[in-house]
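Quick start: what a row looks like.
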Amino acid sequence: MKMEFNPSNLVEMLDIVAKKYPRRIALIFGAKKITYQQLLEISKKLSSSLYNLGIRKGDKVALWLFNCPEFIYSFFAVLRLGAVVIPINSMFKREEAKFLIENSKARVLICSIDKIEDAQNILSRVSSLNYIISVPCPSENKILLDFYHLIKNNPEFDKEIDIEEEDLAEIIYTSGTTGKPKGACLTHKNLLSNIKDCSQAIKVSKKDCFICILPLFHSFASTVCIFLPIYKGAKIVIMRALRPFKRVLRAIFKHRVTIFAGVPSIYAILSEVEISFFKRWTSIILNPVRLYISGAAALPYQVWEKFERKFKRILLQGYGLTEASPVVSLNPLRRRKPQSVGIPLPSVRVKVVDKEGKELKEDEIGELLVKGPNVMKGYYNLEEETIRALKDGWLYTGDLAKIDKDGFIYIMGRIKEMINVRGLNVYPKEIEDLLYKYPSIKEAAVVGVEHRYRGEVPVAFVVKEKEDLTEKEVINYLRANLASYKVPLRIFFKENLPKNLTG
């Protein structure tokens, strides 16, 4: 058995891999193919550029880019200086991006060309921000610079910056349900531990080829679609966007993609797409993908079952959150439990506790706590929030879960989503799982609403698979399978259900 190499930081990881596999293809983007040696050289030239702009250890550099190789060059260029990456959602509007830049005190912003106008407006209003680097830049000046000119005109960075494993690598802002986003501070140690655990869990090798359709600013994408393949010297096919999906399919077959990471909504679409019998079996036989991974949101059982039956490939569900770098658990390759999010990664410990913090027994529902080297350092400049989230090294996830006798985790929903009916706890996911099993239902969501006598009651929103489905039929089905207090008061039929970025 080969020993895993043990870099102390992400920069050392890239240096070692590039030295070992200089001519191997690292990145594919459209017609572009970039080797590991080229990835290293370009990122080091950008490091020189940033250093000349005054970026030093601990400084923040924001990335507001669509999926492209420049995102990855920039990430490693910033890290090489001991500086900290601030990824910004590429779909954010001006004021949303401004909050992240201002809150993090970013000194440089690297952005896509279509963000220039917004970036200049932000620079005029945020005192910490000194420079904008655009990919590319139509007209340069002293503070608005062209990414490619900087690469062309600077040598590779050759200074040795001391980067400790406990140093910050990135601050990822989580999209909180209330208030402003919070910046989760992730160290080199956090990310490396998660990379190594994921590599071990899904048996990644240098022969693998990952396709990245997820937005690179997302923690799931950066760990699973950037750092993990680079750690093993594998290939990464970067897709600018998911649509048109035919382009993604062509890339999968052309580049012999072996690992596909997505969110539940993608698998729901694929499981519903009409494919002729001949085409389906041809695609199954020719399909190079050995493993599909679903994360970032709950994967409905019906979607998992339909997808695997249709494509004859493994679809692994896992669980994670930004504050845990992000992967906490994955279903094992050989002994999966489809409605579970799997078992904890090798370095990770989990437990379920009640409101008083007492550990619960198997199959009892409570808050899921996570502990391990992947757990964040804290929230950026939010001491009280950090104290609430981290206690004795345990991360309080805010997720309701239970753990079975075999150690498999089942997510039951968010604590804030729990419905209190006359003092009895009702978990929306339990009802949603039942709705998804009903053949005439395509999608479902359950929420709690105030009720004059019961305190709260559940109501369900459903997308029909068959037009003749009635509210009475659905309620009768649920009454046959649930205690009466759990049955939704009303069923509302919708054309579609709103979804966020994670599906």
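That is the whole record. The mean pLDDT is 92. The first strand starts at residue 25 and ends at 29.
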